[in-house]
Protein: histone acetyltransferase
Amino acid sequence: MYHLFVCTCMHCSFNFMCSCLAPGNKFSLFILSCCRLCPGWKNFMIEFGKYEIQTWYSSPYPQEYARLPKLYLCEFCLKYMKSKNILLRHSKKCGWFHPPANEIYRRNDLSVFEVDGNVSKIYCQNLCLLAKLFLDHKTLYYDVEPFLFYVLTKNDEKGCHLVGYFSKEKLCQQKYNVSCIMIMPQYQRQGFGRFLIDFSYLLSRREGQAGSPEKPLSDLGRLSYLAYWKSVILEYLNCHHEKQISIKGMSRATGMCPHDIATTLQQHSMIDKREDRSVNLVKKFLKYQDKTVTFST
Ligand SMILES: [Zn+2]
Structure:
């Protein structure tokens, strides 16, 4: 038995064969990502539209691109290139000014496009590679066909600029309504993450099916979801004046799955438990006091 360790990080060529090598014996291949251990990733940049962006994590771009200090991306078709000159030549003939799909939402200068991974495979693969630069864990890069990608853009006279996206499995047995969600660094902390989360629940409500994001969530994702869930629950409680409300009813109205609602109520200490499976909401969270929440089975 011998072990070959190969790093998938794009900045180093970590390729280690352990000393227990015995030719002809069994062989185990370990794919690793040294990621934060590798000094190279810290210096990796992408040029994207008018932005030059420092990347956060490694992404499995092909080796000949991965070794470069900087990648040049077309901000519309997401094709990656080795030099500014190639990008300039590409831009003249690209002809894309928005994601390759139907626009399903527009308000002011924001649009959402629903891109089918089966129809626009290369675009979706490039989107996944780009997203991985800003996500600590993500496994989907190439098998994009079973997914829809909801791409949020900010529009001006030059075109529809990528703000972020979430992907969603077309047929998901676990009822996940978001597989992966990412906001480009230049658009973070401006409410776009919340917008996309809200949009994913809007789709769930339209499907008549409560949803939940795929686990595990990234650190940033967990914080965003907890804040979102809490605000939606508070809004619901303040709009519903009945003395008794059920988690099932909240789930129907919000598209959030009952488990996420219950977890949020507990994590924010919003409820006092009783022995009879019903709970009282903590009064400070209510305009209208003495409300009881029941856990519907
Ligand atoms: Zn292009």
Notes: Residues 16-40 have pLDDT under 50 and may be disordered. The CA atoms of residues 72 and 85 lie 9 Å apart. The radius of gyration is 23 Å. The longest strand covers residues 159-169.
